[in-house]
Amino acid sequence: MNRIKKIYQIIYKAYGPQGWWPLTERYRFIPVHKGKKPSTKQIKFEIIIGAILTQNTAWKNVEKALIELNKRRLLDIKKLKSLPANKLGAIIKPSGYYNQKAKKIKAMIEFLELGKDVNRENLLSIWGIGPETADSILLYAYEQPFFVIDAYTKRIFSRLGLAHKNASYKELQKMFHKALPKDVEMFKEYHALLVEHGKRYCRIKPLCEECVLRRECNYAK
Ligand code: SF4
Fold first, then answer.
1. What number of other Cβ atoms are within 10 A of residue 2's Cβ?
2. Within 6 Å (CB) of ligand 1, which residues are found?
């Protein structure tokens, strides 16, 4: 078994299924981790909004912004379309970079309304949408096998000694695509588990002594 699969098995065994993407249930405000399938347009839309809100911030801040949107029943493409960008910015303020994110949400809505194919090339052509956001949308909302690379993935895999610390998004994604079967559920779970691992142990100041990956890790040796 290659080391990338082995790492997955270790962290899956340690933390269990993560239930990503967190989604809001009916008559509730707080998104919950239940691993619900993106079977409706509304679910896809919520994932898309969450993927934009999570740029450069922790999920707990995204959650606060989503709660504010939910309280106002604004997690709806038509309602968000008619809401001025400055008002949207004020509501999503807890997620940080809120004016920029409001504009990105507006640009995304414009794109979705065109009815174009939601593919990587088209997503990357939208203002403010980079590879991590595009791949999060493709993987979690459209169930396409694009491995999502984020800051946790970079940090963990460079410390493990499996990637160079300056490896690009493209290089890291290629490494995962080569090592793993094209399994959407596994890609979803692996990404979520890496987020969990980064939060629990592989922090900026890592807790190597207690880490489940210490035997696999160059940094800890
Ligand atoms: S052993 Fe330390 S550096 Fe390695 S993955 Fe665990 S927390 Fe990160």
1. 11
2. 156, 159-160, 201-202, 206-208, 211, 213-214, 217, 219-220
Residue/partner pairs of 28-35 with CB below 8 Å, 24 or more apart: 28/70, 29/66, 29/67, 29/70, 29/71, 30/63, 30/66, 30/67, 30/70, 31/63, 31/66, 35/188
Query: Which of 21-35, 68-82, 90-104, 123-137 has the lowest average pLDDT?
Result: 21-35
- 38-142 CATH pick, 1.10.3880.10, 3.40.50.2300, 1.10.340.30, 3.50.50.60: 1.10.340.30
For atom 4 of ligand 1, the residue with the nearest CA is 217
For ligand 1, atom 7, which residue shows the shortest CA distance?
A: 202
pLDDT in tens, 4-63: 999 999 999 999 999 999 998 887 888 998 888 999 999 999 999 999 999 999 999 999
Q: Whose CA is nearest to atom 2 of ligand 1?
A: 208
- Domain 1-18+146-221 of CATH type 2.40.50.140: no
C-alpha 148/C-alpha 137 separation (Å) is 9
For residues 86-105, give the mean pLDDT. 98
Domain map of the chain by residue range? 1-18+146-221, 38-142
Site to substitute for ligand 1 among 200, 202, 203, 205, most atoms within 8 A of C-beta: 202
